[in-house]
């Protein structure tokens, strides 16, 4: 397959455009420039980018084009923005934008029509359990956590599932020069319990004493039932990260193991 960087801007924009990589883990994103004009170009981005753009969740979609090799190229308005800092995640603007995403019926309908299957807690657990066994991960904390996770699956029904971004790291929250807030990089989005997004965001960025007000700004109530779902999905995340970093012999695995031990300490 011909790589996008081997195309010239003329292949899909017009004369005088130049491409350069925009970074990112996938290597599929580029900046296209012509004089003072600049746009963000990506290959095979999220198929519901148009809905995200229309709702103001991502920067404006300018056009979509299919190349001869079958790749779909999208162009978005370039944003001279910055990533949110860690301490800025404890902010009503963040909770309100996440609520807008989770409440979007249009996003949910489009995602379902694309044939995406909801992430059921039981299936998440079974896949993780299999992964742990395959990697032969011998950790008492992981074994205990798996036992606790299986004891009671979160009870939210599929009818209450929403479109989750599934990677709400602060680097994916962008503020432009006019203080508009966007959540970018939707390649891993899923239909799931909203706690799939809420758990990593709250545990990672929001002090425990502020959870109630953050959730209130989001439009919900921090009930015991919600607290349990947050705990369940955060525990899943911790085990997944222990596995991921151990596989790469990265010392960051120990931070996630310590976080896991703290989660199960009083359960």
From TrEMBL:
<dbReference type="GO" id="GO:0016301">
    <property type="term" value="F:kinase activity"/>
</dbReference>
<keyword id="KW-0418">Kinase</keyword>
<dbReference type="InterPro" id="IPR011009">
    <property type="entry name" value="Kinase-like_dom_sf"/>
</dbReference>
<dbReference type="InterPro" id="IPR002575">
    <property type="entry name" value="Aminoglycoside_PTrfase"/>
</dbReference>
<keyword id="KW-0808">Transferase</keyword>
<dbReference type="InterPro" id="IPR052077">
    <property type="entry name" value="CcrZ_PhaseVar_Mediator"/>
</dbReference>
<dbReference type="Pfam" id="PF01636">
    <property type="entry name" value="APH"/>
</dbReference>
<feature type="domain" description="Aminoglycoside phosphotransferase">
    <location>
        <begin position="22"/>
        <end position="222"/>
    </location>
</feature>
<protein>
    <submittedName>
        <fullName>Thiamine kinase</fullName>
    </submittedName>
</protein>
